Q: What sequence folds into this?
């Protein structure tokens, strides 16, 4: 009985994980070779799904969109803004630094639909939208970003949520750098830019690497905010891989084809998992930035 | 290096100038967030807005709360809110319980597979759910949980459970084993010791998990949208989403009112514990 | 080189007053030691000189110019930190070169200067290594090299020896003294170790609770402490202090007594005539006291413990209810033996028990 106790304790957890993760991953593979629909029938169709994939006219668009989306959001926000925020908020008065970082946590804890509403309002093509209010105020006329440059909209929306993770990780890393380094640099005549370049950034380089890789993969599988705000439109201008997979499954009910598309996501998922493991390892092992 | 007498304005006030630009930049990038949330609240109480100025104050936008089956074509708000509460509390309760016992097992018992399972948990935490949506649809149907709140509850629980276990395990790890031995020597069973000694000492971790899981359930959208079809099982996320589709350009007043109603728990959390959010999200091992 | 003047400088952090009306002058080429227990304000003073803290009030002058608001990098100072603060990801060469690179000096010159100073400090073979690969003593020399490389007018040290082990501390201490006297740079040095202060300083400023309690040459502060705090802080073992002493006059002579019952009679030189206080504190240093031959008169006490230190013995003697320490090379003393102490009367100190101020 004693030997079995831990197993009993973790059995419900194991059950849930098996059902919703392990089984799910495993089923995806055979599913990709069927053309299952809402009838839930296992009708195997060989490699037809992969042939459809080759001939699907939307795939090139989706791939390009995904690439653009990930590249822009990563460089401008999930990495760029995160780094900017962490560098600036740790260089000013601590109280105000915390204030700004706390505000940036708001998007993260807001329900996605409400956050989507806010961005839809900001870019409302009519006269009520924040952007248009500002543009009218400074004399430029109204714009319709939503219909003409929707990628801007989703990059911004995902970016304002996504930046907070990098911001937290970088800030925490920067704060753990002993202050004596900065005092020495200050006495030695280094300005802010020089100090940041030669002391701060090198000392957090593993965190920078981790966020870059993790966020890239994470963005590749993002779709929730895009679904709420544009649903991939207009006319697939913002349709990305993860969203397309979702639509294939739950708008078209082509589960087989969707499963095939999911396989890429599963592969990405596994890689993300390993990167995450390595990242946590590095974080716990570089705790001591030796003096 | 400039001689002391030759310093220019820029040099002498370099710290002040830096601060000026730093604050400027921070304000510019952060202000959209502040404006957006302020608008959300103000608009919900306004009949209309001219730019940023409310034209008139009203509670009419909030009428969905007291007009049952109102003419907005959406189901009763109170049932939906109840569903959302159920989802939130359900997820929180399940995860609190399972994380407590699983964390205990991982922390205190040296069973085969302990380490590997922990690594697996970490891996799962980073795994994107979208990859599994199709399969999960099939599975939920197979176990008759499709189109049920319980299905969504269990699913949401499972997605966050790996991380919760890691955090609680961390809390257990920080309690020295001597405390338990003292309890056992004093005559308590292992379970009694767990309940009387360990649980009170990991209160902080449980509290953090409880709050975050409640929020996770409360905010859950994609699972509700995908796996629930019957609108009497909807949660507030679906309610807002539908309103968004129907009323997007027509009625910001209603939309914002519904949204404000929806984010009340979030606002409460932010007001009370906003300062600690960063620490809590980073993994709560520091409490 | 520079002169430093602190004029009525205070520094507070919120409600905490770390520096309280500090006045100090450091002359050109002088070695000034800031000495005191932890939390006394000496490090705050140093950091204020460095420009890392700004004074709340008062003025700081370098060479007659007010530098209160001058950023650190323009103050021409070199600083050695307690934990050395060597950048862990850079080589020793790069660490030393850092200040020069910040000044955008051309690479060729940097190379020459770094190698020259490394050679002078005996670390030229370590230039390619990283800080974690060299010993504590070597790290310290790298820190000094980095501080010196920009040829500063003022050198600041923040407890640089406290991370070294005992024998390394003594040898490095000597090297620092020699370095400073060769280069003749105005130096301010913070430490809590009174023997370091005595050895290194041309002048010592003793801090307590944010105030400078006494400032003077090592000789002055050691032999003429102005109050009990200074008296008890300098010297190892510290000065013996006996409380509840009264001055009593008899036959034109003054005596020092404790508890009229247990008379502790010693003659006191007559220039003490004018002084009549309630209670005083009587102080004498262990090295100014001897166990006398049995016939002489003096204070009697009972030997409590004898600690053999090799070259001499440290004897603790119980006098009524106080313990005093003294050195003795007599080998025939035993525990619990009653002995007589003879004290060098030219070296005794009297302090007002209430204020702590020195009377004699």
A:
């Amino acid at each position: 009985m004693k030997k079995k106790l831990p197993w009993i304790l973790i059995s419900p957890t194991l059950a849930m994980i098996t059902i919703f993760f392990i089984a799910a991953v495993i089923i995806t593979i055979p599913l990709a070779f069927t053309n299952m629909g809402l009838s839930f029938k296992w009708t195997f169709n060989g490699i037809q799904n992969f042939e459809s994939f080759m001939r699907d006219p939307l795939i090139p668009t989706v791939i390009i969109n995904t690439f653009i989306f990930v590249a822009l959001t990563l460089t401008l926000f999930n990495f760029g803004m995160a780094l900017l925020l962490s560098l600036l908020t740790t260089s000013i008065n601590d109280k105000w630094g915390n204030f700004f970082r706390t505000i940036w946590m708001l998007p993260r804890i807001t329900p996605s639909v409400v956050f989507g509403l806010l961005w839809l309002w900001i870019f409302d093509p009519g006269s009520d939208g924040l952007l248009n209010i500002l543009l009218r105020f400074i004399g430029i006329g109204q714009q319709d970003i939503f219909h003409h440059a929707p990628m801007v909209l989703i990059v911004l929306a995902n970016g304002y949520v996504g930046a907070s993770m990098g911001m937290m990780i970088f800030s925490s890393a920067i704060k753990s750098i002993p202050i004596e380094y900065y005092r020495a640099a200050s006495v030695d005549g280094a300005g802010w830019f020089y100090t940041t370049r030669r002391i701060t950034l090198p000392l957090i380089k593993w965190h920078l690497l981790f966020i870059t890789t993790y966020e890239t993969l994470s963005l590749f599988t993002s779709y929730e905010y895009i679904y709420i705000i544009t649903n991939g439109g207009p006319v697939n201008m913002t349709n990305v891989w993860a969203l397309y997979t979702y639509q294939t499954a739950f708008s078209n009910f082509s589960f087989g084809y969707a499963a095939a598309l999911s396989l890429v996501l599963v592969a990405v998922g596994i890689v993300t998992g390993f990167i995450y493991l390595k990242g946590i390892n590095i974080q716990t092992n570089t705790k001591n930035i030796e003096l | 290096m400039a001689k002391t007498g030759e310093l220019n304005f820029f040099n002498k006030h370099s710290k002040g100038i830096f601060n000026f630009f730093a604050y400027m930049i921070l304000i510019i990038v952060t202000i959209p967030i502040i404006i957006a949330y302020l608008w959300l609240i103000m608009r919900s109480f306004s009949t209309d807005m001219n730019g940023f100025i409310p034209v008139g104050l009203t509670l009419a936008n909030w009428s969905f709360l007291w007009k049952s089956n109102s003419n907005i074509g959406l189901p009763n708000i109170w049932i939906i809110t109840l569903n959302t509460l159920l989802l939130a509390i359900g997820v929180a309760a399940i995860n609190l319980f399972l994380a407590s016992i699983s964390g205990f097992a991982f922390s205190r018992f040296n069973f085969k597979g302990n380490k590997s399972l922990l690594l697996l948990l970490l891996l799962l935490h980073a795994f994107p759910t979208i990859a599994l949506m199709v399969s999960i649809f099939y599975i939920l149907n197979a176990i008759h949980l499709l189109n049920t709140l319980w299905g969504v509850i269990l699913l949401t629980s499972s997605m966050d459970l790996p991380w919760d276990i890691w955090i609680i395990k961390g809390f257990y790890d920080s309690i020295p084993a001597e405390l338990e031995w003292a309890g056992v020597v004093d005559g308590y069973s292992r379970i009694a010791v767990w309940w009387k000694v360990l649980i009170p000492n990991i209160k902080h971790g449980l509290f953090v998990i409880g709050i975050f899981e409640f929020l996770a359930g409360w905010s859950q959208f994609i699972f509700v949208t995908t796996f629930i079809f019957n609108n009497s099982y909807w949660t507030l996320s679906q309610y807002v989403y539908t309103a968004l589709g129907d009323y997007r350009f027509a009625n910001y007043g209603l939309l914002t009112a519904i949204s404000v109603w929806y984010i009340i728990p979030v606002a409460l959390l932010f007001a009370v514990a906003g300062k600690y959010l960063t620490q809590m999200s980073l993994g709560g091992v520091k409490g | 080189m520079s002169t430093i003047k602190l004029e009525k400088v205070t520094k507070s952090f919120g409600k905490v007053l770390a520096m309280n009306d500090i006045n100090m002058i450091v002359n050109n080429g002088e070695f000034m030691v800031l000495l005191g227990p932890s939390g006394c304000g000496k490090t705050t003073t140093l950091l204020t000189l460095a420009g890392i803290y700004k004074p709340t009030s008062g003025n700081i002058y370098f060479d007659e110019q007010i530098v209160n608001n001058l950023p650190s990098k323009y103050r021409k100072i070199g600083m050695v930190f307690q934990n050395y603060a060597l950048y862990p990801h850079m080589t020793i060469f790069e660490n030393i070169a850092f200040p020069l690179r910040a000044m955008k000096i051309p690479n060729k010159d940097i190379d020459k200067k770094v190698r020259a100073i490394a050679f002078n400090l005996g670390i030229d073979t370590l230039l390619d290594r990283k800080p974690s690969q060299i010993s504590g003593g070597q790290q310290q020399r790298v820190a000094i090299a980095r501080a010196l490389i920009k040829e500063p007018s003022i050198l600041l040290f923040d407890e640089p020896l406290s991370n070294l082990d005992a024998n390394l501390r003594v040898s490095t201490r000597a090297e620092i003294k020699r370095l400073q006297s060769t280069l003749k740079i105005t130096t301010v040095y913070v430490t809590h170790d009174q023997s370091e202060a005595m050895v290194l300083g041309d002048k010592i400023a003793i801090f307590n609770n944010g105030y400078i309690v006494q400032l003077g040459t090592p000789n002055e502060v050691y032999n003429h402490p102005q109050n009990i705090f200074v008296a008890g802080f300098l010297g190892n073992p510290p000065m013996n202090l006996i409380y509840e002493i009264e001055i009593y006059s008899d036959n034109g002579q003054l005596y020092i007594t404790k508890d009229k019952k247990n008379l502790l009679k010693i003659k006191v030189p007559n220039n003490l005539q004018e002084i009549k206080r309630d209670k005083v504190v009587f102080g004498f240093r262990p090295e100014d006291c001897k166990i006398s031959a049995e016939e002489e008169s003096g204070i009697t006490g009972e030997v409590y413990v004898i600690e053999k230190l090799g070259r001499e013995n440290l004897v603790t003697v119980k006098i009524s209810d106080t313990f005093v320490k003294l050195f003795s090379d007599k080998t025939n003393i035993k525990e619990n033996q009653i002995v007589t102490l003879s004290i060098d009367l030219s070296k005794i100190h009297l302090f007002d028990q209430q204020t702590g101020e020195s009377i004699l």
Remarks:
- The first strand of chain C starts at residue 4 and ends at 13.
- Residues 60 and 66 of chain C are 6 Å apart (CA to CA).
